[in-house]
Amino acid sequence: MSTRTSLAVAISAALVSSAAVAGGHLPFSKDDTRFSWDSLSKFESMDLSGQEIRFDGPWISGDEANLKNVLAYFEQATGAKVQYNGSNDFEQLVLVDMKAGNSPNLAAWPQPGTVSELAAQGELVALKDSVKNTVVGDYAAGQSWADLGTYAGANGEAAMYGLAYNVNLKSLVWYVPENFEEAGYDIPQSMEELIALTDQIVDDGGTPWCIGMESGGATGWVATDWIEDIMLRTQPKSVYDQWISNDIPFTDPRIVNAIETFGFFALNDDYVDGSASSLASVFFGDSPKGLFESPAKCYMHRQASFIPAFFPEEYQGDAVGTDVDFFYFPAYEGKDLGKPVLGGGTLVTMMNESEASHVLMDYLTSPIAHEIWMAGEGFLTPHSKANLAAYSSDVLRKQGEIFLNATTFGFDASDMMPGAIGAGAFWTGMVDYTNGKSAEDVAAEIQASWDAIK
To answer: N or C: which terminus of the chain has fewer CB atoms within 10 Å of its end residue's CB?
Structure first.
């Protein structure tokens, strides 16, 4: 699990609260119209009594309670029993069990690279066509989500091995509405408008952006997220995917352009709080605090959905969505690439096949299996048939709407690259870039690192 993923899991576990299943009582009544109970009915006609399913994953604390709510309805409908095992160390535990011939039926992985490796080793069971068809048909940007879970198996043939379930959103810009209102600024609807707003803020004597990249041994990941979002907005998804696989090298002009576009925002001392040369020394969790000072030290902060955990206390909780808010990091109007979204999440895989585990996979594609967790916390979904009213807060609902409006989804690229690149040369290269090295030189050094591990 990457540093960022571990961070997101820890934050989610700390913030989540849920009406956990207790004493066999289910938390939501069928009188509750927020839920698509009709999508549960087909499972109620199945009898899986006596069948047991082992499901291992990274979700603990409140996340685990929410998942168990989801599974409780499946158990009641089918008669099957699901044993969920959650752990921060679940990946290592599952791999040990796998080598001992004791793999779980289902396992959820935050890193698609692990899914790719396990599929190639023949350790995963290809999912049924019903799963893929539902994802393609019922998820916004469905083909992107199906492609995310599709890998070559031991026979070299591609199949869908992973189902995205519980995802997170990175393509957000945070701001203080009061600051925008006082200055007369509107929310930009395109990248062209965002660039114009950036210049307008400078012309008005303000500082548009607060950016910080320091994150201990993971310093640099903030910049890689910027570049990934920019890649999705300047190139087709096919180019993004070829970049991830290094079929297109880092030295390609399209990649260099994405780095330099990040530099347009980050390397101009007029655009950033502090100075461009200080970005790598500013803790990423401290960097948005300039939004909340009076007068504001900066007006915008591009960061993922977890960042409110680092806001000043008075800007957490109910203040999110009112006193501090966010908007979609917009696409270029002139590039005709739709509305791409960058994010992450978990892929549920099947390692030990059984009738009941296939049925549970189908259940996880149903609207009800999403809505029940939506009614808790820490869950976003691109499922277009899941009722937005099920979200427990307006903030989650608004983020869910961004997923539903997306035409393309890109999983965090650095998390899909080999560790030596995505969590190594790419991170350090971005530090070098903000410290003055050219985009061309940084790209060449990252590519040299990639060539060295081929």
So the answer is: C
